[in-house]
């Protein structure tokens, strides 16, 4: 009988093969964050993008530069907003073309590693479980969670204070937070930060050091309608997205609105929700069943409303960072009203358009790709450990937009709306 072969723990070829497989699996995931990213172009593709960079019409713009490694900076080419008046009648048009410009931005990349203890000789003898076989999916899950959560936190402009077990990113008060996030987490720009106000919305406001919000200011159908009015009248609104294979992308443009589970449940209680959900499924059938339109999702008034994987939550007495000036990156804090007690909190929802955040992938010197893998014997072979790592970084995309009074700091592709949620069950 043939004996199955098994790669040795320290075999370099096996380590690269493992890294390639893990990276491929990660890139094929169907997570919410993966759905918000366009495809990486092939060497011959140049449509709607620049070389080695995904489409700027999706919220997450991913760039891959395998010439960079740990501790380096990766360049992004971001399309600046363009506007012009038409040339009419017999007016001379030649030589009056509107220029397109790209902003070159840079963000840091760094390695993130998750080691997994595979036990020792006695563990192997006493347990029927193959620790090495189970170690790979555990490591992959940790890395996938870290990547998705880092994207979410940068989009939201805050970590919040939720301490659920499956958070891989610590609270902002943790001394390791900045290193784990690689690039600074920027609070929403002043012109992209809103709170619910009764049946409408208002620009973020504080009163006597507390956020100007009451326990009845929850996420409702009226919230969606109010934000549509805001975006329809803004001089530079959050752009729409263009999902691949969506024939309605131009005629029925959409923005993605990520809402927390509690915000979503409140919205889903509306009698019209079934029709709203049916609209999303109908759009999916037109767009070759793109997963962004599937699952816990609905379409209403130009928004694709989708449940986010984690809540960015603020409890009574917690500080919330906000931008106090439109023309600088001055940051102030206001507290969640103490009157919320243990019954209410604030959850952050996130409206996304094209060019919301940039994600850079660089190369490990161990594998030549953004993921790397290691297995090692310790203590003279008695103990074993494996490790998964990645080289990447994330940054929110900002422009200085000239509004006539100077360059207004603008989170180009992301707007946040804070609403109240009741705290129920184990959330208390």
Keywords:
428 residues, eight-stranded mixed β-sheet, five-stranded mixed β-sheet, 8 helices, 21 strands, disordered N terminus
Textual characterization of the structure:
This protein has 428 residues and is of the alpha+beta class. It has a domain at 188-356 and 406-427. The protein has helices spanning 12-27, 32-35, 121-126, 131-156, 177-181, 221-233, 261-268, 273-286; strands spanning 60-64, 73-79, 102-108, 110-120, 193-197, 200-203, 206-207, 210-211, 255-259, 297-300, 303-307, 313-315, 319-323, 331-335, 344-352, 357-361, 371-378, 383-396, 398-402, 407-411, 414-422. Strands 5, 6, 9, 10, 11, 12, 15 and 21 form an 8-stranded mixed sheet that branches. Strands 1, 4, 16, 17 and 18 form a 5-stranded mixed sheet that branches. Strand 19 (398-402) and strand 20 form a beta hairpin. It is globular, with a radius of gyration of 24 Å. Residues 1-8 and 43-50 have low confidence and may be disordered.
Outline the secondary-structure elements.
Elements: H1 12-27, H2 32-35, E1 60-64, E2 73-79, E3 102-108, E4 110-120, H3 121-126, H4 131-156, H5 177-181, E5 193-197, E6 200-203, E7 206-207, E8 210-211, H6 221-233, E9 255-259, H7 261-268, H8 273-286, E10 297-300, E11 303-307, E12 313-315, E13 319-323, E14 331-335, E15 344-352, E16 357-361, E17 371-378, E18 383-396, E19 398-402, E20 407-411, E21 414-422
Parallel strand pairs: 1-16, 5-21, 9-11
Antiparallel strand pairs: 2-3, 4-18, 5-6, 7-8, 9-15, 10-11, 12-15, 13-14, 15-21, 16-18, 17-18, 19-20
